[in-house]
């Protein structure tokens, strides 16, 4: 069955409210936006390697090695990544800066950071909506698992 969306001419932004929600987020920026540290590159690799060695040694002390458990490297890698992310997230959350602090530190008197963030927010909101819309045709089948099962309701007549 055709929808109103099908009868439109050229596609407009995915959500007519994208500007509105973007504006709301920018207005809340002074209170809700924080800049946090993020460890990248070799630092991530270094900490992950540390945890892989640590987990491997701990498991070996308990008798679990690659000889006794040939696929244990998958467990070790996954858990090392979880521990790495835990450490970096904890450190990042303790070092937060508000947008006005970043503007003051960078000398951004024209609020260009806020304008850039507006543009990025709007672009990403529209991209997320477009991605969801592109997959909307597969949703009825996926959502069928959430339907009420056919037949009598539990606790009803038998």
Structure description:
This protein has helices at residues 4-7, 18-27, 29-32, 41-61, 72-93, 99-106, 112-135, 139-143, and strands spanning 34-36, 96-98. The chain has 158 residues and is mostly helical. It has a domain at 16-125. The chain has a two-stranded antiparallel ribbon. Helix 2 (18-27) runs antiparallel to helix 7 (112-135) and helix 4 packs across helix 5. The protein starts with a helix and ends in a 15-residue tail after the last helix.
Question: How would you summarize the topology of this molecule?
Answer:
Blueprint: H1 4-7, H2 18-27, H3 29-32, E1 34-36, H4 41-61, H5 72-93, E2 96-98, H6 99-106, H7 112-135, H8 139-143
Largest sheet: 2 strands, antiparallel
The structure class reads: mainly alpha
Q: Give the rounded overall mean pLDDT.
A: 85
Name the poorly predicted regions.
Answer: 1-11
Oligomer: single chain
The separation of the N and C termini measures 37 Å
Q: Output the strand order for the largest sheet.
A: 1-2
Report the count of strand segments.
2
DSSP strand content: under 5%
The coarse overall form would be flat
Number of H- or I-type helical stretches: 8
Helix percent reads 55-70%
Task: Return Rg in Å.
Answer: 25 Å
Order of helices and strands: HHHEHHEHHH
Characteristic key phrases:
disordered N terminus; two-stranded antiparallel sheet; mainly alpha; 8 helices; 158 residues; single chain
Describe what is shown at a glance.
With 158 residues, this protein is mainly alpha-helical.
């Amino acid at each position: 069955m055709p929808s109103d969306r099908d009868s439109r001419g050229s596609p407009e932004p995915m959500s007519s409210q994208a500007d509105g929600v973007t504006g709301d987020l920018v207005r809340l920026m002074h209170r809700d936006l924080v800049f946090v540290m993020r460890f990248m590159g070799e630092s991530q690799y270094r900490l992950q390697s540390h945890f892989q060695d640590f987990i491997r040694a701990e498991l070996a002390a308990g008798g679990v090695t690659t000889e006794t458990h040939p696929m244990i490297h998958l467990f070790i890698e996954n858990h090392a990544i979880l521990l790495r992310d835990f450490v970096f997230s904890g450190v990042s959350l303790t070092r937060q800066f508000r947008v006005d602090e970043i503007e003051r530190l960078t000398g951004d008197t024209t609020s260009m950071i806020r304008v850039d963030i507006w543009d990025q927010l709007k672009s990403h909101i529209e991209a997320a909506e477009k991605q969801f819309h592109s997959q909307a045709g597969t949703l009825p089948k996926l959502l069928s698992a959430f339907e009420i099962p056919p037949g009598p309701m539990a606790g009803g007549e038998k």
